[in-house]
Design brief:
This protein is α/β, with parallel strands linked by helices and 694 residues long. It is 30% helix and 22% strand. It is built from 20 helices and 32 strands. A 7-stranded mixed β-sheet has the order 5-4-17-16-18-19-20, with helices on both faces. Helix 4 packs across helix 5 (150-162). It is globular and about 70 Å long. It starts with 22 loop residues before the first helix and ends in a 6-residue tail after the last helix. Ligand 6R9 is lined by residues 284, 330-331, 432-435, 457-462, 483, 544-546, 558, 561, 653.
Length: 694
Amino acid sequence: MPSEKSVFQPDGALFRQAHVSSVEQYKEMYEKSIDRPEEFWGEIAKEFYWETPISRDKFFRYNFDITKGPIFTKWMDGATTNVCYNLLDRNVRNGNGEKIAFYWEGSHPDDYSRLTYKKLLEEVCKFANVLKSKGIRKGDRVAVYMPMILEAVVTMLACTRIGAVHSLVVRFSADSFAERILDCEARVLVTVDGTWRGEKLLQLKAICDQSMIKCAQKGHNVETCVVVSHLDRVTPPQGMQYNSNKTPMTPGRDVYWHDAVPQASASCYPEWMEAEDPLFVLYTSGSTGKPKGVLHTTAGYMLYAATTFKYVFDYKPNDVYWCTADVGWITGHTYAVYGPLANGATSVLVSVKFATGGRKSFGCVPKLSEWFRTVYEGTPFYPDNDRFWVVVDKYKVNQFYTAPTAIRSLMKFDDNLVTKHDLSSLRVLGSVGEPINPEAWHWYYKLVGKERCSIVDTFWQTETGGHVLTTLPGAVPMKPGAAGFPFFGVLPVLLDESGKEIKGEGEGYLVFSRPWPGLMRTLFNNHDRYETTYFTKFPGYYCTGDGARRDADGYLWVTGRVDDMLNVSGHLMSTAEVESILAEHPGVAEAAVVAKPHPVKGECLYCFVTTTASASFDGRLVAALKQTVRERIGPFAQPDVVQEAPALPKTRSGKIMRRILRKIAVNDRDVGDVSTLADSSVVEMLFATRPQGA
Ligand code: 6R9
């Protein structure tokens, strides 16, 4: 493991004015949030508008102990408010109507627009009125299948304004989208004709049509489908074109955004919602079975998104903030939409999605050319590999938030792609989605952050609603690879297999003993599954499913999903640990490690390795990698198999699906649900290229 002694102090000059500027201040605020939650969150709540005020005696109630009764969490019960009102009207009333809420850029940098708070409010009201005219009322569900465009934000907030529950889905197949529409019984669907992803045309409306047919076969008819005509207004890649007449429209059900919205009224009275009324449902993949519809509610989520955004990014009123995550991921919900807008922030929204393992991005000659052609969609970074840094420079971004998978991919290019841009506006660099390996951390810190910026390695989940573990940028020293300390109101505990608390140094299951305002409240229409998935293994605790280690200084290091743990000859280690070591080799771009059953050792290590552009995968590399792991962790950890992986099976948010890699390791083709994969052809390719005798 990386040395726990390498500690990086926040830059004093840069963070003198930080919201939290010392460890002592963090501790003081943290203790208050734990000892007097009513006071801590009550003060924050005062900055928001409540139609019915919060009553002190019903501020916070919960039960986390399944042996004592049903699990529930309630914050500010009885109060009423409207999230959209607080995000938009409140900011307009505070004199920020002309402030830019979003700078938008399309896949092609020539396509851009911007939206002020006032204009955003108008657009939201118009679309809210359209939804109402289609019969949508408080509590109804609206399914959204859209790329990163401003209408996606408008749709979310229009739902919020009238109390409808949005459920966004990121580019799933027609089948999986249908499954989600059916699960939440969405009455309306909002989509676009299509979008360019680099050089590939994605016809989203056609996919929606297939989904709606599947839903109809199961007896559920989507009543209205609103379609944004997006392709007409953006620049196609060179030599490409799209004829908008080709978009299939079903009369009576389908309506174009541009036909319905402009004529709608630009004022719409907000629906006052109970604090615990549903805000949105977001599906997340479970390790088994159907996707889980994580449900977040109104008041607690709003406070938590706003507060984490303010403190974790040290957001100040004139900052420009950029989160690269898709709005359809929880990171996009909380940190591209709700958190920034609750703070009246100016954000950049770019329709540049991080792509999936296309080797062209590494500038190499593909070895598996056939497979390669089907995978490359054109936009690792379009039009060039420095798109991130171009955008940071152009908008003078102060806080930049992305995922380790993106960082690892970028660090393989020439440093010049970063250094030729002026990145001096940056102050906070965020990381989310998986543990960040120290090598990537150092690159991010040195090359992008010029050793001035603070890195916030934010650990959280769809279920937690917002950050739960992180260091605060101006206050808490950083350790590369450590998530750090709990955010305000969060009480992490490490448990051993028998449920006994591990105090002080040690490694175990990461659980939480009390809810914070942003924790999910249930799984949509399935409270039983909520209780069994998260609350039965260790009664009294919310179980994250992740493992973590506490070091001598109290820092928490998330070691990955608990099912990603390896037990080789009785030695417990995390896949992240081995992966991080493999990734340090100059010939390795990315690595994923899974456990394979072994007759003697119990389990052995099976490694998948993506090489860099200049390296070749051969016996020498394999031997070197085995030797390194052996040296760094111990002889027991020496990998049994190292397989070349030109790409890894990843979800659309960039997470490696180790469940599938475990199947490949044992040559079991029964891989189960692959609908959450960005590119399922990777799976076949990896089966076909398993090393002999593996
Ligand atoms: C926000 C998000 C949640 C899972 C989580 C954990 C992993 C996320 C992490 C991290 C280590 C971090 N994870 N952030 N692991 N360090 N900073 O990613 O939500 O898509 O629901 O995934 O991602 O394993 O349990 P979600």
